[in-house]
């Protein structure tokens, strides 16, 4: 049996979402602060959920591990992101392992129930990473920054958004396996029909091996006799 298209879509989108979410979680570029007063014009401060970096665009000198003088890491959206983003990554890995066991591309038949459960896990992991990304975006201009500076969205926040959406779409695709599982349970199971073989004038059902031998003897006896009227 071919692997269903929904399962293939889920197995393609979820690993891509995992890579994007991982990149967005680790890289310190959720917010860019530029044109800071009393600072050179080419200095840009890059803030993530784990680190703060200072970069001079003219010389491309980058220095991370800057001190948090304004209490940036103490803000609730940042603290929530620090808790939910790693949890989402771990849950995504668990969901991918369960999905691989459910899809089983190396086996003739996939396990639709297991694949559907994996879809729910991946859907939950996508929501767990989407919530802090959305909250951080909403509070981006309210987080502490130097007065008069220019604030902008960093690429890490965009990658977190894209990764969350891909995980949600992949999880929804895998949850479609529940539909196939329900169809299998609703389908009536017919009892196996007995093996029949047509004789010279009638059909007969075999219930044990001795009937088969007996019918073979009758067939040999019938070959020595003329056919009945119904066969003419």
List keywords for this structure.
232 residues; alpha+beta; five-stranded antiparallel beta sheet; two-stranded antiparallel ribbon; 6 helices; 7 strands
In brief:
The protein is of the alpha+beta class and 232 residues long. The protein has helices at residues 5-26, 76-103, 112-138, 155-175, 177-186, 209-223, and strands spanning 31-34, 43-47, 52-56, 61-64, 150-153, 196-198, 203-205.
Write up this protein.
- Helix 1 packs antiparallel against helix 2, helix 2 runs antiparallel to helix 3 and helix 3 runs antiparallel to helix 4.
- It is built from six helices and seven strands; from the N terminus they run H-E-E-E-E-H-H-E-H-H-E-E-H.
- The chain is elongated, with a radius of gyration of 33 Å.
- Helices cover 53% and strands 12% of the residues.
- The two termini are 47 Å apart.
- By secondary structure, the chain is of the alpha+beta class.
- The protein has a five-stranded antiparallel sheet with strand order 4-3-2-1-5.
- SS field, number of helical segments: 6
SSE arrangement, N to C: HEEEEHHEHHEEH
Radius of gyration using CA atoms only: 33 Å
| Main sheet specs | 5 strands, antiparallel
Give the low-confidence spans.
195-203
Structural class assignment = alpha+beta
Query: Average pLDDT across residues?
Result: 81
Termini separation: 47 Å
- DSSP helix fraction: 40-55%
Percentage beta strand: 5-15%
Outline, from the CA principal axes?
elongated
DSSP, total strands = 7
Strand order of the largest sheet: 4-3-2-1-5
């Amino acid at each position: 049996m071919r692997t269903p298209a929904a399962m293939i879509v889920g197995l393609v989108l979820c690993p891509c979402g995992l890579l994007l979410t991982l990149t967005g979680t680790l890289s310190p570029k959720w917010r860019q602060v530029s044109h800071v007063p009393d600072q050179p014009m080419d200095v840009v401060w890059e803030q993530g959920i784990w680190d703060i970096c200072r970069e001079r665009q003219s010389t491309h000198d980058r220095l991370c591990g800057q001190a948090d003088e304004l209490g940036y890491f103490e803000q609730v959206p940042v603290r929530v992101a620090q808790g939910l983003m790693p949890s989402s990554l771990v849950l995504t890995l668990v969901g991918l392992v369960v999905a691989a066991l459910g899809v089983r591309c190396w086996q003739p038949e996939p396990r639709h129930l297991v694949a559907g459960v994996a879809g729910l896990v991946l859907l939950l992991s996508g929501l767990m990473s989407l919530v802090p990304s959305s909250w951080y975006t909403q509070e981006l201009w309210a987080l502490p920054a130097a007065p008069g500076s220019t604030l902008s969205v960093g690429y890490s926040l965009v990658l977190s958004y894209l990764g969350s959406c891909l995980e949600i779409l992949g999880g929804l695709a895998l949850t479609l396996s529940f539909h196939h599982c329900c169809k299998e349970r609703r389908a009536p199971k017919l009892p196996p029909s007995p093996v029949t073989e047509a004789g010279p004038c009638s059909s007969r059902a075999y219930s044990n091996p001795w009937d088969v031998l007996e019918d073979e003897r009758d067939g040999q006896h019938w070959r020595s006799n003329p056919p009945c009227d119904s066969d003419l």
